[in-house]
Amino acid sequence: MSAITVDPQAPPERAPAPLRRRRRRLTSYILPVFTGAMILYLTSPVLLMIMYGFNDIQGERQTAKFTCCTLNWWKNWLAQTDLNQSLKVSISVAIPAAIIATILGALIGLVLGRYSFSGRGGLNFVIFLAIAVPEIVLGSALLSMFVQANGQLHLGIHIGYQTILFSHIGFSIAFVAITVRARVQGLDRSLENAAQDLFATPLVAFFKVTLPLIFPGVVAGFLLAFVLSLDDFVITNFVGGQTSTFPTWVYGATRIGVPPQVNVWGTLLFGAGLAAASINLVSSIRKGRKQAAAINVGIARQPRT
């Protein structure tokens, strides 16, 4: 073994200098502060609505002054019969409108995202036109169409629930179609081809491969159509006639004063939407973890060379 020689004249080795903590620049705080301010600004109406659901006031009409706090309006949340009936009408319109609009819009989005045909540009233009046209123009046009159809064609369509339902289906289809089309355009066609190579019929390949892949877009389109129908005021105000939905009833109640139960119902609806979003988020996280675990198992089973 060779001996290790040390030069006595060599300078001693210096100890490594401790790592200094880098200071964050002032500009690195701009984006988080701006994001927090925007979130607070966008959620402030909802927070005020929740707060005024506990407003301790005298009488049955909401006031701008806030006095903390009471649970009377939560205990008597069903006291306003007209409000309950209008909300029931809104839900009875929103559910079938969202279902029908989702089916038709998903089929249109699937065609637009997958196939190239003559007239595709015109169909895209019509869809974007249905979204871009002002609601007051669309509402007046729909009302004229229903009135003329009843007067000339004798279709038996009564201005009320039926016209609200048809109108909500009409303007929701475009939103569902765009949502599903965006999902279809990012779809890997090789998966469907692989399913058909394994002797799956086109119908089986659609329900076993295509539909599960675009299902998140379909669910997003359904939720969007449901919320748009539940929230619509302008078009409903034109075609609703004597039938009042939740937005039109609240608008009419502002003339004499809004009852505090409106804030309670708004809080409940917001909580339901928040719960649905949370369930969707948890489901997506679990699905991602299962896919990652399946990929890891597949990698572990591969033979090593």
What does this structure look like?
With 305 residues, the chain is mainly alpha-helical. The protein has helices at residues 30-52, 72-75, 81-114, 120-132, 135-153, 161-185, 189-197, 202-231, 234-239, 246-253, 261-301. The longest helix has 41 residues, at 261-301. The mean pLDDT is 82.
In short:
It contains 11 helices and no strands. The protein is mostly helical and 305 residues long. The two termini are 39 Å apart.
Determine the number of helices (DSSP H or I, runs of at least 4 residues): 11
Binned strand content: under 5%
CATH class of the largest domain, named Mainly Alpha
SSE string, helix = H, strand = E? HHHHHHHHHHH
Assigned CATH superfamily of the largest domain: MetI-like
- Count of domain modules: 2
Helix content: 55-70%
Shape: globular
Radius of gyration: 29 Å
Give the SSE layout.
Layout: H1 30-52, H2 72-75, H3 81-114, H4 120-132, H5 135-153, H6 161-185, H7 189-197, H8 202-231, H9 234-239, H10 246-253, H11 261-301
Features:
single chain, 305 residues, mainly alpha, MetI-like fold, 70% helix, 0% strand
